[in-house]
Amino acid sequence: MKNTFLGFVFLSIVWLSSCGGSATSEKQPGSSVTTAGMTEQDGSTSSVQPVNDITAGSGESGGVIQLTNAVFLEKVYDYKKDPKKWVFKGDKPCIIDFYADWCRPCKMVAPIMEEFSGKYKGQVVIYRVNVDQERELAQFFGIQSIPTVFFCPSTGEPQMTQGALPKETYEKVITEVLLKKK
Fold first, then answer.
1. Residue 3 · residue 28 · CB < 8 Å
2. Contact 108, 164 (CB under 8 A)
3. What predicted TM-score, i.e. pTM, was given to this entire model?
4. Among residues 91, 115, 88, which one has the least CA distance to residue 170?
5. What count of Cα atoms within 13 Å lies in the side-chain half-sphere of residue 41?
6. Could you report the per-residue pLDDT of 69-78, keeping only the tens digit for each?
7. Residue 8 pLDDT > 70, yes or no?
8. Which residues pair with 48 in a beta bridge?
């Protein structure tokens, strides 16, 4: 009985921390990704910078940039050209937040990303991908749970987290993976 109760508590925590995505199929071949634990935190929705903004993809203006599949192929990674080899196209490291408007944990992550867009302005570009609108992109990366956040350094393979994590965890990945000095 005790094991059943503990199993129920664990599954409840996992369910509250992430939303199951509908766009799934396969993970990107040849990509090394890591997954961290999940924790909820309070938050609300944020403003998102449109992709057609003159500074979209530059990271200079701050603000989270809404990312479409076409802009992703142009500014981040052209998976259609070579789906087995990650070749980052950006000039600054980036964060890609895969989300959906209906996902409560995604709404908790949004203000954190908005804050980081100002704090790391000019150092890290922060994008958002709506998995309901950009199904091909979500499917290519095998997004099965949202929020899923990719951390793409200027060199090397991207890393991934799933679920709403504490702000400190995201900040640690930014400083240790994206902004590490070589």
1. no
2. yes
3. 0.69
4. 115
5. 15
6. 999 999 999 8
7. no
8. 64
| Catalytic (active site) residue 152 | no
Single-letter code of the amino acid located at 162: Q
The SS3 assignment for 98 reads strand
- In tens, the pLDDT along 69-126 reads 999 999 999 888 888 888 899 999 999 999 999 999 999 999 999 999 999 999 999 9
What are the tokens at 27? 């993970």
Element (H, E) at 127: strand 125-130
**Cα gap 133→66, rounded to integer Å:** 11
- Cα torsion for 158, 70, 90, 143, to the nearest 10°? -10
| Spatial distance between the Cα atoms of 105 and 120, rounded to a whole number of angstroms | 23
- Measured in whole angstroms, the distance separating CA 108 from the mean position of its chain's CA atoms is 13
**Lookup result for tokens 């900040």:** 171
Tokens describing residue 83? 């789906």
Count of residues for the chain? 182
Helices (H), the chain: 2-17, 69-75, 104-119, 135-140, 167-173
Element (H, E) at 20: strand 19-20
In CATH terms, the fold of domain 2-178 is: Glutaredoxin (3.40.30)
Task: Please report, for residues 26, 32, 147, 163, 178, the alpha-carbon distance to residue 19 in angstroms, rounded to integers and kept in the order given.
Answer: 18, 23, 7, 8, 26
